[in-house]
Design goal:
The radius of gyration is 19 Å and the shape is globular. With 174 residues, the protein is mainly α. It has helices at residues 12-16, 27-48, 52-72, 78-87, 101-122, 127-146, 150-160. The chain has one domain (24-83, 98-160). The chain crosses the membrane at residues 31-48, 54-74, 105-125, 131-158. Residues 1-26 are annotated as: Disordered. Residues 25-160 form the DUF4395 domain. Residues 1-11 have a biased composition (Pro residues).
């Protein structure tokens, strides 16, 4: 039976989407970005000093952490859990919360950059490990120090362009 005009019909994209993730304390992703920035700087240093195997291993671990954040959500990332359990109780309440989608998308961008370095490192292009770490470091540093999340900005740009989001798809009326 068709739904009445007064009842909003859920869009197909909303049904397939993951369940809503709780909003985040914005200090959590910044905390995680600070840890990530330090570790990426270590990868760059190791890469520049000739410890390419150690740099590769650490970048691979960071890629796995980015994957965790991208697929489980920024709030379920190990750094996010560490922030919630150890750091946040020692701070005052946040002035505002932020949606989890942009930081989670940013984790996916970090995953893409670090996996590119890992794959190129596996292919024998060992300088790519340090380059990928340096690119990811810039983004993590901007987030940690200036509260400017490049991945979040990319997410918002893609939402405004209609590429991402939960709006109806062209085939929704079919």
């Amino acid at each position: 039976m068709p739904s009445s005009p007064a009842e909003p019909r859920p869009q197909p994209s909303a049904r397939r989407a993951r369940p809503d993730r709780p909003d985040l304390d914005p200090r959590g992703p910044r905390f995680g970005a600070a840890i990530t920035a330090v570790l990426l700087l270590v990868v760059v240093f190791l890469s520049l000093t000739g410890a390419s195997v150690a740099a590769f291993v650490l970048l691979t671990i960071l890629a796995a952490l980015f994957a965790w954040g991208a697929f489980a959500g920024a709030g379920r990332h190990p750094y996010g859990v560490l922030f919630k359990t150890v750091v946040r109780p020692r701070l005052g309440p946040p002035t505002a919360l932020e949606k989890a989608a942009p930081p989670t998308f940013a984790q996916g961008v970090g995953l893409l950059v670090t996996v590119t370095g890992v794959v190129l490192g596996l292919a024998g292009l060992t300088p790519a490990v340090g380059v990928a770490a340096a690119v990811a470091f810039v983004a993590a540093f901007l987030n940690a120090v200036f509260d400017y999340c490049l991945g979040c900005q990319l997410y918002l740009l893609l939402v405004r362009a209609g590429i991402l989001g939960r709006g109806p798809t062209p085939l929704a009326g079919s």
